[in-house]
Amino acid sequence: MTAVQDMDEIRRIEAEAAPTRFARGWHCLGLIRDFADGKPHSIQAFGQKLVVFQGEDGSVNVLDAYCRHMGGDLSQGTVKGNEVACPFHDWRWGGDGKCKQIPYSRRVPLRARTAAWPTLQQDGMLFVWNDPEGNPPPADVTIPRIEGATSDEWTDWRWYYTVVNTNCREVIDNIVDMAHFFYVHGSFPTYFKTIFEGPVATQIQNGVGREDVRPPAKEGQPKLIGNTSVAAYHGPSFMIDDLTYHYDNMDLESVLINCHYPIDANSFVLQYGVIVKRSEHLPGDAAEKLAIGTGDFIRQGFEQDVEIWKNKTRIDNPLLCEEDGPVYQLRRWYEQFYVDVADVTPEMVERFEYEMDTTKPNEAWRREVEENLARRAAAEDTPAAWAAGQPV
Amino acid sequence: MAVRPDNRLLDAPMRPVRCRRCSAQVQVRKSSWQQTSVQWDADAVAACVERRSAQPGSGPNSNFFENCSELRASIRGAAVEGLLPVPDAES
To answer: What is the pLDDT of residues A114-127, one digit of tens each?
Structure first.
């Protein structure tokens, strides 16, 4: 047998180590209700250990977990009033990072201050601000309000956590990975658009479910016709998906959250949550059940993603075909969160659009081009032929 | 962590297209009849009339500008006119 010599150069996968710096921006640590038990909570995030605790005044605070006295772990301590008390020597730390009291000492030493992380409590979620440069969050860098989250017309959050042992860029890449929506998530977008602009990456998707994946509706059950989705990352880690399912007899409104925070360079906590709007078709428990069902469906999707991520390799030079989405442009957008504010370049934040629209078939385009060519040919030929005195 | 160039742009770069209404110039690439990429810069954003008059919609993600219909039509026109190449892929 003769070996065929392939003279083409082999494509090499290239990948630098994942950055040890963590993205600047608001990161959701989870639901406030999960931190509101009067106990300190230990969180591994941004390469360090944090303590999250709710004081008696209701505010949820995030501090570096290690006591500046002798290094005790505050997350193993207790909440006393509005302070967290170290289990080692009972030093009391306030949410502002200052040591408020040392029960066995007459006074607190100078500069008894630890790292306090700016927090945002909004719509049932706790956010923490990470900035490697140490600056506070600018007033215009915010997370939009989610009206349904605080409304009785909507269900409560159905929330999921999972640890993924890879760098969080993988979850970001998914925004533009159109083909994976079909292969991994069983959705069939007929219209797909992504817009990167400033700190926001928006994805608009209209689709129909793959009938080979989702079973057809049973007799008497509403039939799913399709969905419209507007999903946006507000900063590096928090995506809100305004998602409406269209049934033959009703629209079902839901909001999905897809967010994460890095544990370290090679692992992150993936979280997702869902609320569903109640309606005449979905009174009382039916909406709750649907939120659970939707959440569990999303969980299956993420589990499929996680399975891919667990086994794949990091790749800085993906080889893309024309049908793939704007992966490089997305990464360029994402890079803005990993450099100092002064080093954010226009190309990271300038508006970029990518659109796919299959609602207009190719034939229509081709017909239009042909008509156009014919029209142009007629316009050009006529005077030329006339000038030459030839019959047209 | 420098971001690599898109391998697809080496074969077919983005090309300038002007909006027939406001003359904003953007960089455009069509990889098929159904796919369009548009790179704006600050001047184009400032020039776009629809963009300036856009009102935010409803919902948590409403604060974005989806589309300029004039620019879209201009890009369409450029593609149909043959000024903006479209690979004639069968699909």
So the answer is: 999 999 999 999 99
